[in-house]
Amino acid sequence: MRIIRYVKEGSTQLAAVNDQNQIYQLPQSDFLALIHEADALGTTPLALVLKTIESNEALDQQVEQLELLVPIEAPEVWAAGVTYERSRDARNYEATEGRLDASTFYDKVYDAVRPEIFFKSTAARTVGPGGEVQLRSDSVWQVPEPELGLVLNAKGNIVGYTIGNDMSCRDIEGENPLYLPQAKVWKRSCSLGPAIRLAETVENPYNLQITSLIYRDGEKAVEGTANTGQLKRKLEELTEYLIRDNELFEGTVLLTGTCIVPPNEFTLAHGDRIEIEISGIGTLVNHVVSAGR
Ligand code: DO4
Ligand code: MG
């Protein structure tokens, strides 16, 4: 069961989408209201949604026909890094391209007990499905990072799964790891969506297939696939470090790292279309625009 937000006649609606892709409007104002109501009633979000569905008709529309919004206005988005071997190797490549021999940072963090976790975005910097992600004006090597996103409650429990794009500047990070915040955080450098899959409906989060496609001028330019089974760390290991001595705001999203890296000669350009699909969640589509648009 997935939860979406969309616009209907100028107002925001919450809806549930079942595995047959039928859409049911929900009475709650947003995803967190659904979680709170379930908690208050001593039931689960799925049971609450099923109860609503029981007494309502499905909408006469397909998800593709709706004007989708970001499924949660996450107050903060954090991200884990170097959680897949592929990411470690890519970071080593960008950091050692004739500049700084920093490979040990990435090798060390891949094997360390403490994971890499960094601040990625705020609601105002995050775009939703169909939205425009923006390029930085001072980078010539930019890529999307397709990642599984964990939607967390204030205690750090995983209440849902979504898809995230951790837009990244490989040249800025490669020049000096201390530039990480600039390589990761700027206007519209993060996207989330199209849906949140209720955590209780995911049998095994370590077997989700991730596919990423980038189209340029209508032609497929890059394709990559991965599986969350390749994750080096457990999801709870990441959430445990995020909440440690931290104040977590309800609805925070934690991105879990990328395993899909485009070929080294590739950089995103204005007009590109990025599609990230994760099995059971959906496909997050975004359009790339140059800085200042
Ligand atoms: O070390 C920098 C960040 C890596 C990252 O974002 C990832 O592995 O997804
Ligand atoms: Mg990343």
Verbal overview:
The protein is α+β, with helices and mostly antiparallel strands and 293 residues long. The protein has 2 domains: 2-69; 76-289, Fumarylacetoacetase-like, C-terminal domain (Fumarylacetoacetate hydrolase, domain 2), CATH 3.90.850.10. It contains 7 helices and 18 strands. It has helices at residues 31-40, 45-54, 85-95, 103-111, 170-175, 180-184, 235-243; strands spanning 2-8, 11-17, 23-26, 67-69, 76-81, 116-122, 126-127, 132-134, 142-143, 146-152, 158-166, 168-169, 190-198, 209-216, 219-227, 253-255, 273-278, 282-289. Helix 1 (31-40) packs across helix 2 (45-54) and helix 3 (85-95) runs antiparallel to helix 4 (103-111). The model has no long low-confidence stretch (mean pLDDT 95).
Distance between the termini: 36 Å
Work out the count of structural domains: 2
Q: Regions with pLDDT < 50 over 5+ consecutive residues?
A: none
- Which CATH C-level class of the largest domain is it? Alpha Beta
Helix content: 10-25%
The major pleated sheet works out as: 11 strands, mixed
CATH superfamily of the largest domain: Fumarylacetoacetase-like, C-terminal domain
Class from helix and strand fractions:
alpha+beta
CATH topology description of the largest domain: Fumarylacetoacetate hydrolase, domain 2
CATH architecture type of the largest domain: Alpha-Beta Complex
- Number-wise, the strands total 18
